[in-house]
Design brief:
With 371 residues, the protein is of the alpha+beta class. It contains eight helices and 20 strands. 23% of the residues lie in helices and 33% in strands. The chain has a six-stranded mixed sheet, with helices on both faces. The chain has a five-stranded antiparallel sheet with strand order 13-12-11-14-20. α2 packs across α3 and α2 packs parallel to α4. It is elongated.
Length: 371
Amino acid sequence: MAKLILKNVYKRYDNNKKKNKKQNDYAVNDYSLECKDGEFIGILGPSGCGKTTTLRMIAGLEDITSGDIFIGETKVNDLHPKERHIGLAFEDYALYPPLNVYDNIAFNLRAKKVNEEDIHKEIMRIAPILKVDDLLDSRPVGLSGGQKQRVNIARAIVRKPKLLLLDEPLSHLDGKMRQVLRTEIKRLHKEIKCTTIIVTHDQLEAMSLADRIAIMKDGKLQQFGSPLEVYDNPVNEFVAGFIGEPPMNLMTVDITKQDNELFFDFKGSDVRIGVPKRYQSIVKEGMTVKLGVRPTDLLIGNEASKGSKVKVAVFENLGEERRISIRVGQEFLTLITTEEIRYKQGDIIKLEVNAEKTHLFDIKSGERINP
């Protein structure tokens, strides 16, 4: 195992070679990150945010424009990939069709001139962990997507890497197999105790697998923290809207005052929410802010409720939960309930908000307004 440190790492592509890249347009911009020895880190973000480029720089497959990368105590900026003691599993499996599973896993060890007895011993150790021990005589063409990815990961870890890098390992799998392999990867990490980095655009993968998540946008690190930290305390509007399924409701509201009491006022509607005490000292009448509320913190009031009346726009029964979409002025909101209720379009419900679970963001910068 080894810790991983990135210090002020930049990556800029040559403008002459990448026509879509503007001058001074960085694919990775001033990226700093520290991963502890044995930790599981998720690098999460939308397509094109620079997460795979970051992984490739760690692996040595991309040159660094500036900055430093350390694996353990060793600065690896100028080291060849094979000298970095890493294991790398790509999303497209990259197995050799003419070779059976045993020979695919053995390939890298044979390239390093490891003797066959030691190769056999390592494969027999790793194959049961990845549950491919009954596939060793099979060829890739006869394997399912999940089996191919297990072989792909087995080939990466058979080298006993200090650092295991997984680049979108589940992206080609169907929903059920993704769930199964997520569990397998989590179990594998605990068994081999290897520092692991996974790159993904799927926030559910990152939330379920990683000890900490690094969220990226436009080449920049937005937030780095545990799944619970980034879910409960997003640092900006982007993170708030990216983490969570369905995502956080983000609404533009005005701060109004009536009878010395402050309210969040939704434009174009009669809906208003009392400003919680924790925000009283940082907001004032006349301000416009972005209000964030998780779908589970929008509630349906009863007949005695003081909640505002709104119309149901869409009702979805998903078995374990019900999702209700409503339009409030110019905003389209989603709430989730586990109650056994049924609604149809046009039904009237009373909308309540768990005000203490709301989040505020600056209307211009998108940064969180902390109470």
